[in-house]
Structures are given as structure tokens and as C-alpha cells.
Design brief:
- The chain is of the alpha/beta class.
- The chain is globular and about 75 Å long.
- Helices cover 34% and strands 12% of the residues.
- α14 links the parallel β13 and β14.
- A 7-stranded parallel β-sheet has the order 3-4-2-5-9-1-10, with helices on both faces.
- The chain starts with 18 loop residues before the first helix and ends in a 26-residue tail after the last helix.
């Protein structure tokens, strides 16, 4: 790596904000001998441009010996982030490769077939006459032979050990704040009817320890291998059999990794096992009276070895960029890095703090026990906020689909449903894009959209945080950490999500957007996590104030929206009431229907692309 090239490798014709200073700090950090540089850059810093400049410092093929690692990888967990890179004219030399399922076969009669189910994977020994023109293999060949290959983190991890995507000199990971959590998710093994092709033929024991889970995983891996070999022995496979073969291969790798890692006394990974109750009729005991069990979830804690194999062994130098790497030492500990070999570069915020205000509209706690009392009050506050912004779009971070449904019903009962949109699990992207494309000042009830969402300018001028985004304490990993006293980690995780959410509605120095805090637990979070706040976000918190909202008059929330009082939502033309309290019990028990706006899409901004063969 040659850090001195970082300014020449910057792809834009000029610098904005703190980019030039950031490049100098990154260069100095690498020149000081650090293997990893964490770049904490807030929204609007142009992280992708900084990432491209770092990638351009990688050793070239002309500069190294044949055995030397050359070139760079750019990777991000977010599919939407990769899409943004693909559409940026300044980043055209990032050669993007996606998983096979994202490409369509070009053979006659197969034009609707994804490449991962094409004849080349269905028929043994198939010699494709057009493979040189296949969009997947063409992109793969280009990405593997050019200086900078770009891909999702899922694809990057899946191709570990690949002969095509070998170790490179520099690896740049954008939006890297959740690296430990993404690794834990990717390394988690789900064993159940949706993930094990022949689950109904298995007898699953009751698993009361990790050791027992290892024994079962070892045996299951052998069964999967036998079934996979049977499929490989066939001359041709149906699309369903192709999916089964690929899933079996993936499952074998997961199980073997778990067994090997657990049995290695040097492994730092802690494994947890959750098991559901067996399905009715599957509780018969075997000859040795071993009771039956249900689906299994095998989870790693801080999967250092998994990250070493899938990430850290893939490059010589690393740059990890994010707005929310809040604590360097804690981050390093969770991802298996030695802090003494890691530098942190802070990039200052260039957005005026007065353009990104926080407002206190807290109405009580949104814990499960107190939600029934608090949520109607929050809904009333949302109506008043809608009145304050009659001609501006708004975003509601509902946190969960249960809260989303209840809010939609309450807002409809209050008479403002004509200005409210929401999304389903399957059509989240289509519904989001329809809302963004609309000129109406509609309010979008979202779930898990705190990241990877660019609502610049008039796309959105205000948002509401309905609930403090604390991790679910019923998750065994969360419970395990809290039992060991890792409360700072717990608060950091929530703060990170809040900071990410605050960045959705202001995307440039001359942009502006208001964030309303509705859950009083968020105020407690700000206090408890204060020491881990970036200075620029602490400045926002210090300016937190109670806004001057209009008195509750739902009709005025529709004056500029072209709606009328008493109308239903855009998905459900249910009659509504404009009384102040609403009919909460009725709304809680009603399941609203939603239209499918625009083109159906099942791809989430967090979707991963595991369908690769490297």
C-alpha cells in the first residue's frame, strides 16, 4: 500500500467539507504503521469518495511480485449502498459483482431464469456456449481482474477461500459499524423446516447443552453430505433440486465450521443454542428414551475466528468507515482486532447544528408494559406535528410492525389517515419508493429504516422516533451479554441506531430536517450513553428543546394535503373518528389492509446475496 497516493486517488474534481483534512489524517494513520484505520465520518462526509481514495492506494500488479496481494476490495453490508455506488459517475471504476440470483440467464428459453438455476447448474457437465457473454460470469471476470472489486459484505464473506477472489492489498468496508452483528448473523445456523430440506424426515433430539448441539450438528452434516452426493450423482436436476443442493452445500459448511470451532480449545468464540418446542406429534421418544426437540438456532458470540477467515485474512490493510463507530476499543474487541494496530480518524460534521434540531415530544415510556398507555399519546403528538408541517413529508420510525399497525389505526381514528402511508414486510421497497416519488406531503410509517435511506431535500423534512431502539433482551446473545454486565454495549447499540436514524432527513450542509423524540426512554439513553457520543451529536442533544406545536386539530393537518377529515388511509378507506381520544381498543384489535403501491419488490435494503460460487 502507498498511502501517499490517497490525494491523487480521490475521484472528485474538488473537495468539500472536511474531505481534504480527512484524507490527510487517513494517510498519516496508515503511514504510522497501523493495519486498520477506522474512519468515523458523519452523514454528508462523502464516505464513498473517501473509500475510493483509500482503495486507490493499493499496490498495483505492476508494483508487486506475482506472489504479492494487489488491488482492493470495496464492500458494504447494505445492498442499497452498493446500488448508490453503481449509480455514481465518480465511482465508475469500482467494478461491481453481485450474487448469481441477481442475474438472468441469456440462453433461449431461459430468459426468466436466474443464473443460479440456469442449465449450467442444473445439468452435469453442461457446456454453455454463451458463458463468455453471461452477465454474471462477465461481471465476475471483470471484478476479479480489475484493481477495485465492489460487492456486498455477504458476497465478500461467502467468497472467502475462493480462487477467483483472493487476498488483496487493501480492503475498504463502508458502513462498518455493525460488522460484529452482521458476522454473528451470517454465522448463525438456523435448523428448522425452512432451512433443512429434509427436516420432516429428521428426528431432532432435545438439546440441553452446546456439546449436545455439536454432536447433533456433526451427525446432521453427514446426512446432508449423503443427500447432496445423491443429487450430484444425477444427470440433471430440477430447479427445486438445484436449490436443495445449494442449500445443502451451504448448510454443510455452516455445520462443519461450528463443530470445528467449538472443538478447538484455542477458539475465542462462545456459542449459544436456542431450541423451540417440538411440533405436535413429534414428541415420541426413541428407543433410548431420548426426548424429541424442535427447531434449533446456533449462535456465535463475537465470532472472531469467523471474521478472521472471512474478512481479516482477505487483505493486508483495512479502512472501516462509518458515522457510528462509537468506541474504538469496544469495537475492536467485538471484531477481533488488536487496538494497538488500529487508528481512529474523526471527521468533523459540516452540517450546521441548527439545521438538524432534536425536539422533545416525549409522552412516556414505550416498554411493552407501558405501550398501551403511551402510544395513543404519541399518536396525538404525531397529529400535532403533522399540523406544524402541513405541506412537508414526514417519516415515523415505528420500530416494529405491531407499533406500525397500532399507529396507523390510531391516526386513521383521529381523522388524518388520508395523509398516512405504510409498508408491508414483502413490499417495503416498493411502498417506500412510491412514497418518495409522490408530491403529496404524506407521512410514512416505517419499520427498520433507520439506515441506508437517503431522504434529501423535500423528500422528507421531519421524522419521529417512536421508541428507543434497544435490542431485544429475550435474544439469548443480548441476555448473555447483559448477564455479564455489558450494559455499556447495550446502550451503545441503541445510540448507534438513533444517530443513524437522525441522519436520514438531512443529507447536505444546506439541507434541514427536524427529529422529534417521543419515547421518554430516549432521554435516559442520551444520559447513559453520553460518553460514547460523537461531539457533533452531543451538540444536537445539548440543544434538545420542547417545540411549540399547534393545539390538537386534526383537520388542519390535512389542509395542505388535499385531504378531508374522516377519510381512511391510503391503504384502508375505513371510516374514522376525529375525537381526541380515538377508539384505542378498537384500533388495537383491527388489522388494517394495505394496497400494493407500485412494483412489488421483496428486496430489503438489508438483503444479502449469498448465492455465489466464488
Amino acid at each position: 500500500m502507498n498511502p501517499d497516493r490517497i490525494f491523487d486517488a480521490f475521484p472528485a474534481p474538488s473537495y468539500r467539507g472536511n474531505q481534504q483534512a480527512a484524507l490527510g489524517d487517513i494517510r498519516d494513520a496508515f503511514e504510522a504503521g497501523n493495519d486498520v484505520v477506522l474512519v468515523r465520518a458523519p452523514t454528508g462526509s462523502g464516505k464513498s469518495l473517501l473509500a475510493r481514495a483509500v482503495a486507490g492506494c493499493a499496490r498495483t500488479a505492476a508494483e508487486g511480485d506475482p506472489v504479492d496481494a494487489t488491488g482492493a476490495y470495496y464492500t458494504t453490508p447494505q445492498v442499497s449502498q452498493l446500488d448508490d455506488v453503481a449509480g455514481d459517475d465518480l465511482l465508475q471504476d469500482l467494478n461491481i459483482i453481485r450474487g448469481k440470483s441477481n442475474y438472468t440467464c441469456i440462453l433461449p428459453g431461459e430468459l426468466d431464469t436466474p443464473v443460479n438455476q440456469a442449465p449450467c447448474v442444473r445439468e452435469r457437465g453442461y457446456d454453455c456456449s454463451v458463458q463468455h457473454r453471461c452477465p454474471y460470469f462477465s461481471d465476475r471476470a471483470i471484478a476479479s481482474n480489475r484493481e477495485i472489486a465492489a460487492m456486498t459484505l455477504a458476497y465478500f464473506m461467502q467468497t472467502a477461500g475462493s480462487e477467483v477472489f483472493r487476498k488483496r492489498d487493501v480492503v475498504v468496508i463502508d458502513e462498518a459499524h455493525g460488522l460484529a452483528e452482521w458476522a454473528e448473523m451470517y454465522a448463525t445456523i438456523q435448523l428448522g423446516p425452512r432451512t433443512v430440506p429434509f427436516w420432516d424426515d429428521l428426528r431432532v433430539p432435545a438439546v440441553d447443552s452446546v456439546e449436545r448441539a455439536v454432536q447433533y450438528a456433526d451427525a446432521l452434516a453427514q446426512q446432508c453430505t449423503r443427500r447432496k452426493d445423491e443429487l450430484l450423482g444425477q444427470q440433471s436436476l430440477s430447479p427445486g433440486e438445484v436449490r436443495e443442493r445449494d442449500r445443502l452445500q451451504e448448510l454443510i459448511g455452516e455445520l462443519e465450521f461450528f463443530v470445528k470451532d467449538y472443538r478447538d480449545p484455542q477458539s475465542p468464540t462462545t456459542w449459544l443454542v436456542d431450541q423451540s418446542e417440538p411440533e405436535t406429534g413429534s414428541t415420541d421418544s426413541s428407543e433410548d428414551d431420548d426426548p424429541a426437540g424442535g427447531a434449533l438456532t446456533i449462535k456465535p458470540m463475537d465470532p472472531e475466528r469467523y471474521l478472521r477467515y472471512t474478512v481479516w485474512d482477505r487483505g493486508n490493510k483495512f479502512a472501516l468507515l462509518s458515522a457510528t463507530i462509537l468506541n474504538k476499543d469496544a469495537f475492536c474487541r467485538h471484531v477481533g482486532l488488536e487496538p494497538s494496530r488500529v487508528a481512529l480518524v474523526d471527521v468533523g460534521h459540516t452540517f450546521p447544528v441548527e439545521n438538524r434540531p432534536l425536539y422533545d415530544v416525549t409522552q412516556g415510556k414505550m416498554t411493552y408494559e407501558e405501550r398501551e398507555e403511551t402510544l395513543p399519546k404519541i399518536a396525538r403528538s404525531i397529529v400535532r406535528i403533522m399540523q406544524k408541517h402541513p405541506d412537508e413529508k414526514g417519516l415515523i420510525h415505528a420500530h416494529s410492525y405491531a407499533i406500525q399497525d397500532e399507529l396507523e389505526s390510531l391516526l386513521t381514528d383521529f381523522g388524518v389517515g388520508n395523509r398516512v402511508r405504510s409498508h408491508t414486510r414483502d413490499d417495503r421497497n416498493a411502498d417506500l419508493e412510491a412514497w418518495k416519488a409522490s408530491d403529496d406531503p404524506d407521512v410514512f410509517l416505517s419499520v427498520k429504516m433507520e439506515e441506508a435511506l437517503d431522504l434529501k431535500g423535500d423528500l422528507c423534512r421531519w421524522q419521529v422516533l417512536c421508541k428507543a431502539p434497544f435490542l431485544n433482551t429475550s435474544d439469548s446473545r443480548v441476555a448473555h451479554r447483559l448477564e455479564s454486565g455489558q450494559w455499556a454495549w447495550y446502550y451503545r447499540a441503541a445510540l448507534r441506531t438513533v444517530i443513524q436514524a437522525c441522519g436520514r432527513v438531512i443529507r447536505a450542509p444546506d439541507d434541514y430536517g427536524s427529529t422529534y423524540v417521543a419515547d421518554s426512554s430516549l432521554l435516559d439513553l442520551f444520559e447513559r450513553a453520553r460518553t460514547d457520543m460523537p461531539d457533533w451529536f452531543a451538540a444536537q442533544v445539548d440543544r434538545l428543546e420542547t417545540p411549540d406545536l399547534p393545539s390538537f386539530e386534526p383537520r388542519t393537518a390535512l389542509d395542505s394535503a388535499g385531504g378531508s377529515i374522516g377519510g381512511g388511509s391510503t391503504r384502508s378507506k375505513t371510516s374514522s373518528s376525529s375525537n381526541e381520544t380515538g377508539t384505542y381498543e378498537r384500533s388495537r384489535n383491527r388489522s388494517g389492509t394495505r394496497s400494493r403501491s407500485g412494483r412489488s419488490s421483496k428486496r430489503s435494503p438489508l438483503a444479502d446475496v449469498w448465492d455465489t460460487d466464488g
